[in-house]
Structures are given as C-alpha cells and as structure tokens.
Amino acid sequence: DVPVTVEYQQAKNDDETVAVNADLTPAVLKFSPFKYKKKIGQGGKVTANVLIQKGEVRRVNDLKILVDKGGSASGTLTFGRVGNDNDVKTGKFPNVTLAGANNFVLDFTQTTPNVFDVIITGKQLDARPFLGSGRSIDKDIADTKDGSIVNATVKVSQMKTGDRPDALLTSPNVSLKTNAAGDVAFLDLNGAF
Fold first, then answer.
1. Could you tell me which residues come within 8 angstroms of residue 6 by beta carbon, excluding any fewer than 6 positions away?
2. How far apart are the first and last CA of the chain?
C-alpha cells in the first residue's frame, strides 16, 4: 500500500483538478529506459496536479518525483489524441537527475501510438544502461520492452560511458532510432574521449 493524499476540485465550467501527494517509500519505482529501479523501503515522494476536462486527463502539472539518494525529476505531461486514444502527447522535464549520473532536460512527443520523438540536452547523460556497462541491473528492468519506437537526439556536455571517472564522452551528439523490439535501427554518434 502506498500512502496517497488526493484533493479533488470541480470548477463551475466542469474542469476537474486532482492534487496528488504520494509517499513512494513502500513502492517500487521503475524508470525503464534507464534501467532504474527504486527498491521498496528507499524513501521517495511524488506530487502532481492533474487537470481533467470532459472526463479525460488533459495535463499533469507540477509533476515532481524525488527519491532519497536517487535523484529527482520535475516536469509537465500533456495528453491528447494519439491515434484513437487519449494518451500522453508531450512531456517536458527541465530537470532530470534520476537513475544514475544524470543531469539533463528531457522533452518528448508521442507522434503516433508508441512512436516517440525524444530530445535530451543538458550537462550529463549516464549512457551505461544503454551500453550494458556500469552498475548491475535488475533483470526485470533490463528485459523491459514496451513496443515503443524511439527517435532520440542527445546533445549534452558529457556522456558517462563506464564506471571510471575518466569514462566520459565529451560534447557528444547522438541521433538514435530504435524499432518496436527495442533494437537500435540507426545510430549516429560523435564526440571526444
């Protein structure tokens, strides 16, 4: 059981807002693309304000995820028609430090069902989970494939590629495309060690 506080309000125009505050300590939190898993018992918290219009989620504002000794992420999600369904349309996270040695800005758009354009910019991206190096990874995270196709662009000051302090790629520019099986279909990478 996760302790959650929910405050609900309905405006005169029938817009609904839901403020959520949850203690993540008794829960597992997974950040699959980075093969990150917060274990049960590790402190954590999530807060968000959800806007619902005409019975459908339209926006998640002030989304904040904080994990004790695990980093944080804050941002906004917008929802809209993706194919025939109301789904996450865009995400903007100006500060992501979750899941390892990360410190970046994340913007994404779901262009069609399960097809995402992702842009990562900022100080550092921990690429070890994508390279199969670095800290040990739980098998249930490592084997996660959700059928999504990702078109990613990465421009950060440095990319961590291994556990040694000097295992850094500086000024990397990455263009990456994956297929629905999670395999890399295209990779263009340049930078300096």
1. 18, 19, 20, 21
2. 46
Contact 96, 73 (CB under 8 A): yes
CA-to-CA dists, residue 187 to 92, 127, 134, 178, 190, angstroms: 24, 14, 21, 9, 10
Residue 83 structure tokens: 């194919």
Q: Give the pLDDT confidence of 112-148 residue by residue, as tens digits.
A: 999 999 999 999 999 888 776 545 455 555 555 678 8
Rounded to whole angstroms, the Cα distance separating 165 from 163 reads 6
E strands, the chain, where?
Answer: 4-10, 16-23, 29-31, 36-38, 44-53, 56-67, 71-82, 85-96, 103-112, 115-126, 149-160, 168-178, 184-192
Instruction: Give one word for 45, left, alpha or beta, with left for phi > 0 and alpha for psi -120 to 50.
Output: beta
By three-state DSSP, how is residue 120 classified? strand
pLDDT in tens, 92-110: 999 999 877 899 999 999 9
Nearest to 36 by CA among 163, 167, 142, 121: 142
> Cβ(65)–Cβ(74) under 8 Å?
yes
Model-level pTM greater than 0.85?
Answer: yes
